[in-house]
Amino acid sequence: SDVGSQKERVVTEEEWLEKWEMGNIGFHKEEGHPLLQKYLDVLLNGRSGLRIFFPLCGKAVEMKWLADMGHSVVGVEISEQAVKDFFSEHSLPYCEEPVPEISGAKMFQSTSGNISLYCCSIYDLSSSIIGKFDGVWDRGALIAVNPCDRQRYASLMISLVEKNSSYLLVTVSYDPNKHKGPPFYVPESEIKSLFG
């Protein structure tokens, strides 16, 4: 498949942090994502009290929405500002602690205990640190991951899900020759080869 000039494109952690610092976060949805509401039944599959993972979570409002429904939410985000903004914008008290297994990483947890956000690179995480999940809401993570890291990302995500889990994935479709990304164009054939 033709991914244009995107195959070689690399966005650094510094660039993502700068987007948050400058408020250049057009990818953030204040009202939550309509596709999650539309496909919530698919994610939950009639189950309650799930562990739901938000890769590259930013300050996604859906985290509070799902936690308020009784689910346990875990997210990972490189920007500490995004994580702190999430808690302050929802007036949620939280505590902050280091993650012993990951140098420099922090975990921010709501005092109610049902929302835990890790501030580190997603590639520093593993199921031995954060456990496994019943559901994943991948709203903008795969399309934000550098194309050269997609296989690594998909392998990590597969290692983090339980056998009967649901994985909701949102991508974007456009001509990759006209936009350098992110968001990156990920053709459906590649999604199938990554996730099976």
UniProtKB/TrEMBL annotation:
Its EC number is 2.1.1.67. One of its GO terms (cellular component) is cytoplasm. InterPro entries: SAM-dependent_MTases_sf, Thiopurine_S-MeTrfase, TPMT. The gene is Tpmt. It is an enzyme of class 2 (transferase). Keywords: Cytoplasm, Methyltransferase, S-adenosyl-L-methionine, Transferase. GO terms for molecular function: thiopurine S-methyltransferase activity. S-adenosyl-L-methionine binds at residues 16-27, 56, 77, 121-122, 139. GO terms for biological process: methylation. It catalyses: S-adenosyl-L-methionine + a thiopurine = S-adenosyl-L-homocysteine + a thiopurine S-methylether. Belongs to the class I-like SAM-binding methyltransferase superfamily. TPMT family. It is found in: Cytoplasm. This is thiopurine S-methyltransferase. The keyword Hydrolase does not apply. It comes from the Eukaryota.
